[in-house]
Each structure stands twice: as C-alpha cells, then as structure tokens.
Design goal:
CATH architecture of the largest domain: Alpha-Beta Horseshoe
Distance between the termini: 21 Å
Radius of gyration: 22 Å
CATH superfamily of the largest domain: tm_1862 like domain
Strand order of the largest sheet: 9-10-8-7-6-5-4-1-11
Bound molecules: S-adenosylmethionine, iron/sulfur cluster
Number of helices: 15
Strand content: 15-25%
CATH class of the largest domain: Alpha Beta
Length: about 425
C-alpha cells in the first residue's frame, strides 16, 4: 500500500491490499426466467410456466442471442466505458483476467445445457478466463438431470447453487416451491454423477409456520445431503411481492426478528457441528477451498461486469444496473441501445464505508490497509459493545456482531 502522505492523504483509498482490483475480476450473467415466481422473491425474474413449450424455446433462443450480443458489445467498448469519468482506480484499456463467472437468476438451468455451454463459449471467445476460474450456475431442483449437469461440467461449470429452501413440506408449500423435500437430495446426487465438483444449497429460515423442529430437521437433512456449501437467509419480506402484499393486508404475519435470531444461532450450532465453517454472515463451507470465490469478490468490493436483465456491475467505484424488464432488455439489445437503467459513482467516503460494511461480513474481516480511518473512541466503544474484535491485526465482526452488522458499521463509519 502506498504510504499516506500530506500530498496524497487518501492513498489508502486507491491502493488497497485485498479489495478493489486486488480481489479478482468477476463476470455476472443474469437469466431471469422461472417456471413460477415464488411469493417471497424480489429478484429480476420473468415467469414463463404458462407459456407454450415452443414459445418458451423461442424466447430462450432470443435471450441467449441478446446476452451474447450484450457481452460482446461491453467487452468491445473496453473497461473505461464503465469506469468513473474522473479516472479514479487507474482502470486500464484491457479487461483483467476473469477469475470467477456466475450465471444467476432466475433459473438459468431452464435454458438447458447446450445454451449455457454456448454462453460460456462466447465468454471464452471474448475475455481471457483464468484456467482455475470458478464457474457457478444457479439451478432449481426441478430442472436437475444427470444429462444437464454432464453438459454443464463439460462446458467448464464446476459449481452449482441450488435453492432447497426447506426440507419441511408445509414450509415449501408456503414458499410456493414447485418441488418436494426429496428433490434437492436427488438433484445433489445427479450433480455428482454429472461431474459437478461443488454444490451449494440455499435455505430460507423464519418462514411463517416454520417451527424450531422444522428448521433443525432442515439443517440436519442438509448435513446428510452431501453438500459442501450452504447459504442460509432470513426470510425478507419485500413490499412488491405476493408475501409483501399478504403482510400488508394482514393475511401473513410480519417476520419475527427474535425468532430469526434464534434460527440463525441454531444454523451456526448445527452446521458448525457438521464441520461447516461459518465464513460469511449467511454462508457456510466445508473448509476455505469450498468458499464461493465469486461472492468473496463482492464482499471484497471487487470489480465485476454485469450482463443481462436486472444485472449489477461495479468497476473502480462506479456501479451500474440494467433494466429489470426482459422485454425492454431484448428491445434495447435488438435496437443497438444500452440496457443500462442507472449508474452512480461512489464518493471516496461512500466507497470506504461500503468496503467496511462488505468486509465485515467475512469471517476474517478487513486487513488494516483496507480499513478507512476509524475514530479510536468509536472503535473502543464498538469493541466494548461486543460488536467487533481484532484478530491477527485484522478488524472483524464478532459472531454476535454479524447479526447487528448495520449497527457495527454505523458506529465505525467516518
Ligand atoms: C436468486 S435466487 C435463485 C435460486 C433459484 N432460482 C431457486 O429458487 O432455486 C437465490 C436465493 O435467494 C434466496 N432468496 C430469494 N428471495 C429471498 C427472500 N425474500 N428472503 C430470503 N431469501 C431469499 C433463496 O434462498 C434463493 O434460493
Ligand atoms: S426463488 Fe428462484 S425460482 Fe423462485 S422466483 Fe426467485 S429466482 Fe425464481
């Protein structure tokens, strides 16, 4: 790190040791299609389950073409197209080597193995991808098959992220999931048979009607399912979803934060006893090698290119996002227009605060050279309150502080 001098008192903002460009370079590709839109989900999704099979296939072909066109155009425009105009972050003219690719959704696997392989082929054609890059595809259990996973493995996909959500049948019904409790377990076995080395299971806790026993049984089922990574999220109610409307009308209770806190503690206990390392607020892995490298890039405030509907990108302090409407996206790409719906350049202070917020999500916290200046008294108080601690010279959240992350950050922020 460059020394902080009177001439350049903010050098620490530009030359971090683990964050920013030092964190790697990611590529996020979004596929919005889902069979059905789950009542809780606020992601950029387009439900296609009611469409005739042939219409779906035509739409998927059109979307794949648009994704590849969007990718090629962005790559051809060069990194400076997305970088802040003031030249911050010393962005060069060549794209960095891609260290992780994440095809998320939606349900990307609805596109099928051949289209996803073609998409990855297009990525390799126009960007340099590191030989050991992590390549993840999100998947719903209903779309699983050995054939699909075999195609993905041959195309270089090494990691799947699958939504199991719960192993309690009545919770799956409340969540409007289209699979039973056994399906993710079968899908896991199919993934292994197809040659996929790493599989994450997503879980949701605190769903109305879920009991303590349901949650404990779900975690125990995950331990025997043979997964190497678990993401467990507290149910969030978004206003613009079916759940949000049900809560507003009184038909569904608001989430109970104390109960969610208890469920979080049970997850820590059961997954920890099962050998999982709790390496980020909502994520557990079977050892450091199984952590999600793409997500670590986000938490290290790294740079990533965004392609597709409702995708978010970040480069050297500038963020941008694309339209959430599939129709508008397809029209924009077809007409040669940009699908970008908005962008913002973070101030140095916002960047530092965001780096702190994201860095404290990770178990090891932040390297001292990645930390913004912190008021010594504020730090002492946050430590006394049991929110943060230092370990090996790094500042990190305590496990209790993880559940109160916003409070920890607001005490420390500039
Ligand atoms: C982008 S979704 C895609 C997953 C995949 N389509 C599936 O449903 O199997 C990623 C994960 O976000 C989580 N998620 C989505 N909405 C949520 C909400 N409102 N509250 C908590 N977790 C949520 C779910 O666990 C979901 O599996
Ligand atoms: S949770 Fe998954 S399947 Fe359900 S709507 Fe969201 S992205 Fe689609």
């Amino acid at each position: 790190m460059a020394p902080v001098t009177a001439a350049d008192p903010r050098a620490w903002l530009l030359d971090p040791v683990e964050s920013g460009s030092a964190a790697g370079f990611g590529l996020y590709l979004h596929v919005p299609f889902c069979d059905h839109r789950c009542g809780y989900c606020d992601f950029a999704t387009a439900a296609v389950g009611d469409q005739a099979e042939q219409d779906q296939q035509v739409l998927f072909d059109r979307y794949l073409d648009a994704l590849v066109t969007d990718l090629r155009r962005q790559v051809a425009a060069g990194p400076r197209r997305h970088a802040p105009e003031d030249g911050r972050g010393a962005v060069g003219t060549a794209w960095p080597v891609v260290t992780s690719i994440f095809i998320g959704g939606g349900t990307p696997t609805l596109l099928g193995g051949e289209r996803l392989a073609a998409l990855l082929g297009a990525v390799h054609d126009c960007l340099e991808v590191a030989p050991d890059a992590e390549v993840t595809v999100e998947c719903n259990p209903e779309t699983a098959s050995v054939e699909l996973f075999g195609n993905l493995a041959r195309a270089g996909v090494g990691r799947l992220s699958m939504g199991a959500q719960s192993f309690a049948p009545h919770v799956l019904r409340t969540l409007e999931r289209g699979h039973d409790a056994q399906r993710p377990v079968t899908a896991m076995a199919q993934a292994r048979e197809g040659g996929i080395a790493e599989v994450n299971l997503d879980l949701i806790f605190g769903t109305p009607g879920e009991t303590d026993d349901d949650w404990r049984a779900t975690l125990e089922a995950v331990l025997v399912a043979g997964t190497d990574h678990v993401s467990a999220y507290a149910l969030t109610i978004h206003d613009n979803t079916a759940f949000g409307r049900a809560v507003a009308s009184g038909a569904m209770p608001q989430v109970d934060e104390d109960l969610q806190r208890d469920r979080f503690d049970v997850a820590r206990e059961v997954l920890g006893a099962g050998g999982f390392e709790h390496y980020e607020v909502s994520n557990w892995s079977l050892g450091p090698a199984r952590r999600s490298r793409h997500n670590l890039l986000y938490w290290r405030h790294g740079d990533y290119l965004a392609v597709g509907v409702g995708a978010h990108g970040h480069l050297a302090g500038r963020r941008w996002w694309t339209t959430r409407s599939t129709a508008r996206y397809l029209d924009a790409i077809g007409a040669g227009d940009s699908p970008i719906a908005g962008s913002e350049v973070l101030t140095d202070e916002e960047r530092a605060e965001e780096r702190l917020l994201l860095g404290l999500r990770v178990r090891e916290g932040l390297h001292p050279n990645d930390l913004p200046p912190i008021e010594p008294l504020a730090l002492e108080e946050a430590m006394d309150a049991g929110l943060v601690e230092t370990s090996c010279g790094r500042l990190r959240c305590t496990e209790a502080g993880w559940f109160l992350l916003d409070e920890a950050v607001s005490r420390l922020a500039l």
